[in-house]
Amino acid sequence: MGIGGSDMYRQQILDHYKSPRNYGEIDDPTFTHVGENPMCGDEIRMDVVLSEDEETIEHVAFRGDGCAISQASASMLTEQLQGMSIEELQAMDRDDIVDMLGVDISPMRIKCAVLAEKVAQDGAEIYFGEKEIDRTTTEEDDD
Ligand code: FES
Fold it and tell me: Does domain 3-138 have CATH number 3.90.1010.10?
């Protein structure tokens, strides 16, 4: 699938791709948001439930179609996001995603890797009134 890195990390990516964690929908989420990778048109949608004080992520689910990197990244991210503060989510960048995946990601595939992170971050920003967009698209200079 065009990624370098150790076998252990490649195995982990394939495992998340084949058996995505937190895949599906949440009834009545605090917010939901969708984004796409414009290079291929693949989409990821995320449902997020926040704590009562709206500072912490309590539950996340995602659904979508895409390559192994995008789906594994979304699956792994949903595990990391549970219990994370909104502040921590907004502080995440592409290096965190590359570290999470543990493999070398080519510049072309970075859009796949960061799609889920962008969807979660934009979804939160829209919810808190800091951004006004309908959909997220990953861009060349995404961080
Ligand atoms: Fe579409 Fe990776 S090729 S998200």
Answer: yes
